[in-house]
Amino acid sequence: MKKALLAAALLAAALLAGLCAPAIAEDAESGASAGSSAGTGDTVVIGDAHGVPVEAKVEMHGTIGVVGPWTRSTNPGAHVGGVYVILENRGDAPIRLVSATTPVARKTALRDLPMVDGVIRGVELPDGIEIPAGGRVDLRPGGLHILLAGLVQPLRPGRSFPMTLTFADGTAIDIEVGVSDVASMRIVTP
């Protein structure tokens, strides 16, 4: 029991630090730097998996760039998960993500995990997540994310599932969320 609690505490600390990198796709040919912007079809480095750069394609939907949507695999019986993605706004006005839907969960919510009085608290964001003009927002472990509640089945490594992101102006973007194997993740420094 104590070992399980210690393991859970260590995992929570890593998640809160926002330092877990997913193993989404590997492509050693790009020299993009972590967090850099890229054009349509380009890739950006979003972390590493066991020392190998992890890159993801930038999918453009009008002026909105979607980079590397992913989630962690879950164990049977798990009820919640989180979706992480980089959203870029290449337009000249701010945009706001207001909801997400997927058939793999009974409910989704836009959330943050701020520290309040020394305790991490999950906070729902009813007004959504703003992406500034010409900027980007990283939804990642330990911070902003899309909560999956009431999972209808375990999320299996190597698979993917559909999700629709809806913005305040009515724009709806269909994305495919890759499921990463928890065992292939490691803590990296930003």
Description of the structure:
The protein has one helix spanning 2-17; strands spanning 20-21, 43-49, 52-61, 64-72, 80-89, 95-101, 105-112, 115-116, 119-120, 123-124, 129-131, 136-139, 145-151, 160-167, 172-180, 186-187. The protein is mainly β. The chain has one domain: Immunoglobulin-like. The strands form three sheets. Strands 2, 3, 4, 5, 6, 7, 10, 11, 12, 13, 14 and 15 form a twelve-stranded mixed beta sheet that branches. The longest helix is centred in the N-terminal third of the chain and has 16 residues, at 2-17. Residues 1-40 have low confidence and may be disordered.
Short description:
This protein is mainly β and 190 residues long.
How many angstroms does the end-to-end distance come to? Answer: 32 Å
Spatial shape = globular
| Proportion in β-strands | over 45%
> How many DSSP-defined strands?
16
Main β-sheet: number of strands, strand sense, barrel status? Answer: 12 strands, mixed
* Element pattern in H and E: HEEEEEEEEEEEEEEEE
> Could you estimate the helical fraction of the residues in percent?
under 10%
Unreliable runs, pLDDT <50, ≥5 residues?
1-40
Within the CATH hierarchy, at the fold level, what is the topology? Answer: Immunoglobulin-like
Number of domains: 1
CATH class equals Mainly Beta
| Secondary-structure class | mainly beta
- The overall average pLDDT, rounded, is 76
The whole-angstrom Rg is 16 Å
- Regarding quaternary structure, what we see is single chain
CATH superfamily: PCu(A)C copper chaperone
CATH architecture annotation name? Sandwich
**What is the number of helices?**
1
